[in-house]
Amino acid sequence: xxxxxxxxxxxxxxxxxxxxxxxxxxxxxxxxxxxxxxxxxxxxxxxxxxxxxxxxxxxxxxxxxxxxxxxxxxxxxxxxxxxxxxxxxxxxxxxxxxxxxxxxxxxxxxxxxxxxxxxxxxxxxxxxxxxxxxxxxxxxxxxxxxxxxxxxxxxxxxxxxxxxxxxxxxxxxxxxxxxxxxxxxxxxxxxxxxxxxxxxxxxxxxxxxxxxxxxxxxxxxxxxxxxxxxxxxxxxxxxxxxxxxxxxxxxxxxxxxxxxxxxxx
Length: 265
Fold this sequence. Notes:
There is one protein chain. The chain folds into two domains: 13-170, Four Helix Bundle (Hemerythrin (Met), subunit A) (Up-down Bundle); 176-260, Nonspecific Lipid-transfer Protein, Chain A, CATH 3.30.1050. It has helices at 13-31, 36-39, 49-67, 84-87, 92-105, 109-123, 142-164, 172-189, 226-233, 239-244, and strands at 132-135, 138-141, 195-199, 203-207, 221-224, 248-251. 49% of the residues lie in helices and 10% in strands. The strands form two sheets. A four-stranded mixed β-sheet has the order 4-3-5-6. The protein has a two-stranded antiparallel sheet with strand order 1-2. It starts with 12 loop residues before the first helix and ends in a 14-residue tail after the last strand. By secondary structure, it is α+β, with helices and mostly antiparallel strands.
């Protein structure tokens, strides 16, 4: 029999909204300090640091823009939160193009960030998480869409850090949401109980079919830190690269996640 699916993890809408704003504020504080030379530094995917900074603003602005539109017809969303990581790559190019256009049109990133944060604060309620919004892959509940914004902000904050070399703080709740959603997506992609994946202090999931662990030390264990896990799950770091750098430990003959990664782009 296939393993029973666990009930999807619940996220508090108000706490997620607060985490999104907090992470955006961390980036905003650093973006204010970037020099023209730093903004021109290359980032992943032929993007500059300026493009990345604009991309982060675009991710937040998408929520405000959707809430200014009429609610799409329901009653149920077309896309669940656990389905989102596997669909996120499809619209990535369009979002990146929008960010480049925004970076060119709005050279004053400080003003852009201030306006984006103010619009989000004014338009996004602390509750009403069941309201539907439109995404590139289908309609989602607002509460779920906010979780995806936390994921996007954390992932692209790391991109900006690696492009500029500057340390940017991570809001604990945003980092936890990002880690947990991507860990749960792995368990969704490869359901089972033969491998335990640990990402302390935020997530532990079991995945991959085979003999299920019930007591004692699991025979197949993968363990890493949150940022390494996020980079693995999004293709920023390769599995073999992380193993060789001792950024991830894997014990047991089934503890090879390479065929399952990345989960999203």
